[in-house]
Amino acid sequence: MPGWSWVVIWTCLVLALLAVLVVSAWRLFHRAVAVLRELGALAEKAAMLDGARAQREEERTELAILGKRADLRARWRLARDASTRRRNARHAARLDRAHALTRFDPNSRRWFDDHDESRSHPE
User: Does the model's pTM come out above 0.70?
Assistant: First the structure.
């Protein structure tokens, strides 16, 4: 084997190595960009959750033992009235459904289609 063939072989090997390194670096760069993009989205979600947590802490109700009795009684009455309204609405909906099921007019429906060939009587 002549000496110049070794130079060609090693040149091809080095070029192949450089090509592999360039492709690997390109893929690594794109993955790093994707990770940074996802980290940005994660930071936005974390900020949103922190805001929601702060708002939730502001909305916390005070302890009943520390509040005034009239305020507590008024809050309890409001909750009881809302519960009663929901219960009455559910009851009315059940009654409407029951009336719709039991008050069926059989004359309002066509029971057999005159154009149905399978139900026609042979003459």
Answer: no
